[in-house]
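Entry 14. Structure prediction run on the chain below.
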Amino acid sequence: MGGESRTITVNRKAYHDYVIGDTYEAGIVLQGSEIKSIRAGHVNLKDAYARMEKGEMWLFNCHIAPYDAASHYGHEPGRARKLLLHRKEVDELDALMKQKSLTIVPLRLYIKGGVAKVALGVARGKKQYDKREAIAQRDQDRELDRVMKTRMR
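Output returned:
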């Protein structure tokens, strides 16, 4: 079931708030009209995170808007969703979270081979001064690009 993957949404806030380490690919257990909402792009990963619960990995705070064309028995937009990972990956992530007090954050949600997948990143929180430093560096790079473009003309 390989093939093309189509990115639905990217969690830009995760890249701003965290230093991202290893990444993992996980499937998501969806119900009802959730896949239709995902394909329509009505997903928000901004405050989402993954956590172990009863030996399984779950995705919390991922908002998938109700699908308009679905019946009134739609899905709960903010419910916790089970993530599908290999047992070895679940154990690795659990050990990392316990040992080094790291967080698992969703980086992007995409469709691959007709199936919804989420890219999970092992993340360490940035300090406030790290965020300011990143913003200053980005502004500096933007200014340099602007100057180079005007000189090329």
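The first strand starts at residue 5 and ends at 10.
Filed with the rest of this week's runs.
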